[in-house]
Design the sequence.
């Protein structure tokens, strides 16, 4: 029950944050992807950097449960899936989370169609999964749940550096977000 | 037009806090798995024989579909019991989007801009029936399932934890997204 409540609160905060960041608007997102407007890039780089730096802080003060971390497996599917994802992302200027956030706004009609397309795409994948898996795509270039820094005994890491690596990476990302000149159509 | 202000910073801090707090209280944000759950629920409604209870499987269910049966029937269980954290999280997103939109002092201006944009587009069959939206949604979700995550799960949650798959996914996604977005404008298929 507690899980559901946490889901409600974090989901609502996530939706509100996506709307505020401007990513719930597909037209703005498409402008960003055409490199005409870079406010979203600034926001995303800074937000990512801040969250990495916060993970370092949470770990430092001892409130971070390592079991909450979740790293996804690296395999060829990530590359091929990422390339396919980009095609849809570039076409429509939306992704699964932002389409859900857009559902609560004035562009709900577009959002409904994007989501229906998404459900159909997910179902098509489920039906084809067996034959896709048989190609061995998930075993090729499989490096497991590899991370850059050592953040948990569950995941292999490239570097021996621990959470301080996340802090440095976070600060660099925040600096990148901060210093990129804001090119915004007004 | 170049505009320099720090309004973006508040937005970035808000988003960054949400990512970090999610990990603190439960787990990193992720959205695309739930689409497979919904697709699976529809599939199960059409053919209820695909998922069966099976106490020998880790999550208590097994399926004739290899994807639902994966990881000890984890998805099969979620399809049969959809009222779980992930689904509530997904359903709460539009709620939060609505609240933020409702409180946005600029919402009227934004709605007018959107109307203007749509008015500029020839209302072709393709625009009218949101063909781009449907195909785009289909393609990005298919890709996200193949990669086992989307912008939220791979790009945001992945990169913030320094995950290699997150960096690779982001690089690959932008490698196609940017040319496709540019091509759509160039070909006159909507801005």
Sequence:
């Amino acid at each position: 029950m507690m899980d559901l409540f946490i889901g409600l609160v974090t989901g609502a905060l996530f939706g509100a944050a996506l709307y505020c960041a401007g990513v719930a608007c597909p037209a703005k997102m498409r402008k960003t992807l055409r490199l005409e407007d870079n406010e979203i890039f600034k926001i995303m780089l800074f937000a990512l950097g801040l969250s990495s730096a916060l993970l370092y802080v949470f770990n430092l003060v001892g409130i971070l449960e390592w079991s909450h971390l979740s790293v996804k497996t690296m395999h060829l599917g990530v590359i091929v899936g990422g390339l396919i994802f980009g095609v849809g992302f570039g076409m429509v200027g939306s992704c699964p989370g932002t389409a859900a956030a857009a559902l609560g706004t004035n562009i709900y009609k577009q959002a409904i169609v994007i989501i229906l397309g998404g459900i159909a795409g997910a179902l098509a994948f489920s039906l084809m999964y067996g034959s896709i898996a048989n190609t061995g795509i998930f075993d090729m270039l499989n490096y497991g749940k590899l991370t850059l820094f050592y953040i948990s005994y569950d995941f292999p890491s490239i570097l021996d550096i621990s959470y301080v690596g996340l802090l440095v990476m976070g600060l660099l990302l925040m600096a990148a977000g901060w210093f990129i000149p804001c090119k915004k159509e007004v | 037009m170049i505009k320099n202000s720090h309004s973006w910073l508040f937005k970035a801090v808000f988003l960054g806090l949400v990512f970090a707090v999610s990990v603190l209280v439960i787990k990193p944000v992720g959205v695309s798995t739930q689409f497979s759950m919904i697709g699976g629920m529809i599939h199960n409604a059409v053919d209820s024989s695909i998922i069966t209870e099976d106490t020998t499987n880790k999550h208590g269910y097994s399926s004739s579909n290899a994807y639902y049966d994966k990881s000890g029937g984890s998805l099969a269980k979620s399809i049969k019991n959809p009222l779980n954290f992930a689904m509530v999280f997904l359903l709460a997103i539009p709620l939060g989007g609505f609240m933020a939109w409702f409180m946005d002092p600029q919402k009227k201006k934004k709605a007018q801009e959107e109307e203007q944009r749509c008015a500029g587009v020839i209302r072709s069959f393709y625009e009218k029936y949101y063909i781009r939206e449907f195909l785009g949604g289909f393609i990005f979700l298919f890709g996200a399932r193949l990669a086992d995550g989307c912008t939220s799960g791979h790009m945001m949650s992945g990169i913030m934890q320094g995950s290699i798959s997150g960096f690779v996914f982001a690089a690959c996604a932008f490698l196609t997204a940017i040319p496709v977005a540019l091509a759509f404008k160039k070909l006159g298929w909507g801005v």
Observations:
- Residues 42 and 177 of chain A are 4 Å apart (CA to CA).
- Chain A touches chain B through 128 residues (CB under 8 Å).
